[in-house]
Each structure stands twice: as C-alpha cells, then as structure tokens.
Here is the input.
Amino acid sequence: MRMLVALCLLLWTLPAVAQTPASGGGEFVRGAAVLRITALTPEILRVQIAPQGRFPEDASWAIPASVRSRRATVTPRTDGFETAALVVHVDPATLRLTVTDRAGKTIAADAADPLRLEGDAFTLRKALPLGEHYFALGDKTGPFDRRGASYVNWNTDAFGYEGTTDPIYKSIPFALSVGGAGGAYGLFLDNTRRSWFDFGHREEGVLAIGAPAGPIDYYLIAGPTPAEVVRRYTDLTGKAPLPPRWALGYQQSRYSYMSDAEVRDIAGKARESGIPLDVIWLDIDFQDRNRPFTTNAAAYPDLKRLAADLRSTGIRLVAITDLHIAAAPDQGYAPYDSGKAGGHFLTNPDGSLYVAPVWPGPAVFPDFTRAATRAWWGGLYKGLADGIAGFWNDMNEPAIFETPSKTMPLDIVHRIDSDDFAPRSASHAEIHNVYGMENARATHDGLLKLQPDARPFVMTRAAYAGAQRYAVTWTGDNSSSPEHLRLSVQQLLNLGLSGMAWSGADVGGFVGGASPELLTRWVAIGAFTPIFRVHVTKDGPRTEPWADSPEHLAIRRKFIEARYRLLPYLYAVAEETARAGDPVMRPVWYDYPSQLAPACDQSMSFTLGRDLLVAAPPRYETGRAYDVCLPSAGWYDYWSGLPVAEKHKEMPALDRLPVYVRPGTILPRQPLARSTAEVPQGPLELHVYPGPDCHGALYWDDGASLHGATLRQEITCTVTPQGLTLDFGKRAGAYRPWWKEIAVTIHGWDGDGRVKGIRTTRDVSARTLSFTLKDQPGAKRIEIVR
Here is the structure.
C-alpha cells in the first residue's frame, strides 16, 4: 500500500507533458495522471482527475446523463481555455487550477499541493481566502456559516441530535461560497461515499474536500451572485417541482394518532376551534404490527372511508411507509412474499438475505439501485394511494436497530441496474448515501405511474444531491428547546441553498415536549417556512393548536390564518422555485447582498421569497429588545402596513412576529379559507407597497394536476408626479381563477386619491388608499391621481 501511495504521489508531481483540447474543455497530463476539465455551460465546469490515467464510468445518481453531456463553446489558451464567462488556468508545472472571471478576478483556486492520495482515498485542497463565507451542505447542524468547521457526509439516524451533532440525516456534498473577490461560486463533489468537507478547520487558509474512495469528480459553479449559483446547481441536479397546493397548508402530526376515532376528533376540533387545516399525518401505529403497506384493522377499520370523509371537509391524510419490510415468510404478508419472489431484497456477501431489526422486528430491505425493484416498490402503493394523498419515507438512511453503527454493514451487496450505470454489484459503502433518495424516487415514480396527472407528494428523511426531484424533506428528530428553534432556521436555509426548497422542521420539536410558549413561538415562525407541520413523539405533550390555553390558541390561530391569507403569494413563489430553482425560504443576503455582513444579529432573520422578511428575536428568552436591520430604507411593517425605519428595535412579544415587506412589492393575498380545498369567498387582494422595481406576480392552477391549465400574470407599478400607475400585464394561460374582483390597497399613501370611474376609500391613520376592480385578465393601466 505504501508503495502505491508513493507511486501516486510521484506520478502527480512529474512535470506536465501534454495539454489536449477536448470537446468543451481540455485534458492535462502529468505522468500517468490526467486532469480533465469540461465546460458544461459558460459558468459550470466539471473537473475529473484520474490518478492512474483511467477514468471510472461516467454515471451519476445526482446528475442525469443528458445534463452531463452538455458542452459550452470554449477557446483554447496556452494555459487552459476560456468560455464566455470564465477563464480556466492550469499551471503546467503543478496542474494547479485557477478559475477567474473575464475581468481576471479569481473565483476559485487550488491551494499548493492540490491533490493528495493515500491508497483509494483522496483529498482536494483549495485556497480559502479571507472574507469568504460558506453555506449549504444540507441540514447539517453547527453554525450557519460553515467556515472554520469540518463535516462528514454519511446519512445517519440521529434521534435527539444536538446543535453540534455530525453527521445527521442527509449527505448533500455541495458548498456555496459567498463574499469572494470573484463573487459567489459553488462546489459539488459527486461522490456517494463517506466524503468530508473542511473549511479551514484543520489547516488555516485551506478548503479541503475528500473521500475514502470513489471518483474524483466535482463541479465548480460560478455566479457571480448566490442566486445564480443555486439556480445553476439545480440546473445540474434538478428543480424542486411544484407540490400540490394542499402541501402549502397547515399540517398536524403526532407519533401516533392511535385510531380512526382520534383522527376524526382531531379534524373536528380543528374546525371547531377555527384552525385552518389541510393535512393529518399517520405515523407507524396505523399499521398492523408496524409492517409497511398494512393497516391495523382494529384501530382503523376502514382507512379508505376515513380518507374520503376527511377529504370531503378539505383535509387529506399522509401516511408513513418505511422501507424495512417485515421478514415474515409464509404469513401472507404480500410485500415480503412478492419482494422475495422477485429478488428485490439486499443480500449479505454470501448471497443470503440480509435481515436486521427495525420497527417490525426482523426486516429485509429493498435494493433501490435496481430499476425493477423501484418499480415493484412503487406498485405496492396501489391500494393505499386510492385515498391517501401523500406518503412519508422515514428511517431510510437506512436506520438499523441494535447496532453501534445505526445502519447496515458496509459489505451488504447492491446490484446496480439503473440509469446509465453498467450493471454490477456494489457495496453498501458506495450506495449508503443515495439509498434514501432512491427509496423516495421509487415512491415518487410509483405514485406517478398510478396517477399519471397528479403531483406526487413524498417526504423523505435521508437524501443525497438531487433528492429534491422526488421529495420534500424535514430536519428529523429535533428537540423541544429554544436552541432547536434557532437551529431549525439555519437548517432550513441551508437546505434551500442545497436545492431542497421544500423542507420543514417538526414545529414544537419532536423530542422532549414544548412548553406552551415555545410551541406558540415556533408556530409563528413555522407559518413562514416552506413545510408547516407540527409533530411530536408519542410520550410528548399534546401539540395541537388548541391543546393549551385560549390565549395560546388565539395567537397560534392568528399565524396559521396569516399563512392561508398569503397563499396566492406563496404559490407564486412556489412556481418560481419550480421554474428557476430559487429557495422558498432564503437567507436575507440571497437577494440583498449587503446583508452578508449586517449591522445587527440576523441569526433568526430570513425571507420568504424575495418580498417578505421575517425578523424573529435571536434570543426571545432574554426578554430584551433587539435590533432589526433592514436591507434598505422604505420597508413596510406587514401587520400594520406602515413604513418602518431601516434600523429599529423590536421587543420579543408572544403575539407578534416582526414581518416586513420590500418597498416595490405588489403582494397578492386572499380571503381566509379553512383549507386549500375551500374556494375563498371575496375578491383577490393586491397590496401595493410603492418603491423601486415595483412588481408582483400571480400564478394559479387547479393545485393538483401536472398538465392542467395555468394562469400567469405580471403586475407593475410606477410612482409618478401625479400619483401612481398600476399596470396589469396580459394574462397568460387558460385557467379561470376563483376571483371575480380585485381589491387593491396602496400603502404609504398620503393625500387624496382618485381613480377614474372607481370609488376609492382613504384611511388616514393607516396611510392607505383602497378600491376594487373587476378582474383584469387583459393588459390594463390604472392611474391613481393624488
């Protein structure tokens, strides 16, 4: 082994002897080693290294072949090549890579000794300049900014994890650099093994990335803005599709609701207490002996009827289906019998079935690296999907009981037969980090096959890069504490930057039990996060909104209702996410770069889309006032509609969550409804907050189908010497909306206001001018004169 290491190092340090132009890039040779750099687009470079000159097969679980095959036009240079956006420099003496923009500003550069080899293991070393900050890597704990820390990518069942626990549930080896001289850039290491990232923790000034084996294959994604990097990363790994509209509603869960009667009681109390509700979740106790794809007939005598009855009131059921199939031969358990007959389960190296304990007891595990196995798994939903609206794939790291590793042995055998991989056997050491994603993929594709025009809803706990194509996610078994409330905000932000735009945290915390105050504060913040689900372990206190005092119920209802009123805005953001790849929930600096170094503590601040900024108290438990620093002057308080100072103080109040609106926003809202299935009664609201770049968007459809009619419309406003003009663009699409009228409210308005032929109402104290129009499907200018 030592001789092999020495040989690899010797080959890498030999003088470069060749530079070969290649389609979309070039190859650079030193001894036996080959460095291949390919420009997929003018801003995305793929970098591959073959230390012995032989590249592994060109296949990926994260990036489709059609994307990997793209090529940009390049112009050769003596030391590399250039694209329309980048200049690639390779030092002929060392093969050190430096990437600059066309103006010569360095985007990313290798450190000295850029590649270190030790057997099959490798380390890539890049410069880590002062002033750069690093984000993403999925739902990892620790500080929001990754600089100065190290992380391991290994999907792990991390029940009750702490703020410094690593690894946890997901492995998304993508890091976003912000604040560098050449602007933002991203690094994605497409290696499914137990990889690691070190941001100057072990060695000051060095960003080190490595893995114990597997391909040396990474992508460098240039910006220059963080938004451009994230969008391009999702160009590679896929966009998070538009979910069914009900997934944007309030969702109630518990481990577990133990019977049909309890679920009906929850639904009834939600309606009685005036809580809008779209989803009730069923955890493992709805099943027969915790066996996936079964029902406990005593507790749930007619699951299909229950689902139908709830749906008639606008509430849907989502049910768990863990991937561990009970090892139950000769017991009439169809998933085991059909899986065994089809050869769909993982095996030990000697060919025997791998059996290990999980919730059903001894269990076997599908081999999701096989297309045939994924199709078999998807077919198991045939009965459940006829009534159940969505499915929850938990424990898919995979989690195994009674073993220190918390997972299966690394020599368990997978038989890859999928995508553009050559059919072959692979160890679990290679497949572990993609196992949960392929489980979610099997569920997603199975539901799509059963209901070809319905948007599948799948939630997964474990993930790899690209999982956003198949599922939403959550941050796993968190704890009921103020620290975990704070941690959840940075986890959700980093998940969004990692492509997983649709994510949530168990509101109130899963482990330990939230106090009434903590639950109320968490509900307020959760109302402005992508997936809004309350969930708690079975020995925790009740966490339904009505579980505590009438005062807490009233505050929780206020914030849940606020989310439902904002659905037209949130749905337009969701459609933008599906189209462009932007996160739903974003760091403030994502759209406002000056806030990368804010003048006050923004650890609990974020934006929902671009136009709403939430500034929760960084430490509410102190009871002290805190500073809010907005990105610019002219922002508005969402609740009062009044302008606020760019920097001001807020007091942590239980019934108030500071939310602000960007000047220049046209914010659509709707009348309150009990669920997304209920048609709002009254006009669509357009709240106009005058300012620069004044615009808003409407997007609507039936909320469920993949190929149905849509509606899209842009609206702009301009402040004029005479007052303000409101311009409706011509509506695109054939979908007919629920609204017949549009109620316009202009905020920050002083003086009189007239609209020709329309009655206006002025509120002096609120500084608003309001009027109602007929729906405006065509291009139309409305002039408001002072």
User: Anything to note?
Assistant: Confidence is low (pLDDT under 50) at residues 1-17. The two ends are 82 Å apart (CA to CA). The chain has four domains: 2-237, 245-322+371-396+432-567, 585-661, 682-785.
